[in-house]
Design a protein that fits this description.
Elements lengths: L11 E5 L6 H10 L7 E6 L4 H12 L2 E7 L5 E6 L10
Parallel strand pairs: 1-2
Antiparallel strand pairs: 2-4, 3-4
Length: about 90
């Protein structure tokens, strides 16, 4: 997983630590629903399978993965940008 940090304003944070596949992605989908197009959702997860799950989620929904990194303690951080009006709605 690439370790990159892209400064982006975060509009909402979802703590999915301790949850196993597919719950982090399902909860992220629900958390994105009320957000405006272009909003950024930060998801924190500990399930190693979340890496592949969020890559697939972004490919199929049009969300842009701004960041995928591992923080201390094995916490994975994903920053997802909700697609604009021309993209597919992930909700």
């Amino acid at each position: 997983m690439p370790q990159e940090t892209i400064p982006a304003a975060v509009d909402a944070v979802l703590d999915a630590t301790g949850l196993l596949c597919p719950l982090p992605v399902l909860k992220a989908r629900r958390a994105l629903k009320p957000l405006a197009p272009g909003a950024v959702l930060e998801v924190l997860a500990t399930d190693p399978g979340a890496v592949n799950d969020f890559e697939h989620f972004c490919r199929t929904t049009g969300c842009e993965m701004l960041e995928a990194s591992e923080q201390s303690g094995g916490v994975l951080r994903f920053r997802l940008k909700k697609p604009g009006a021309s993209g597919r709605d992930p909700t």
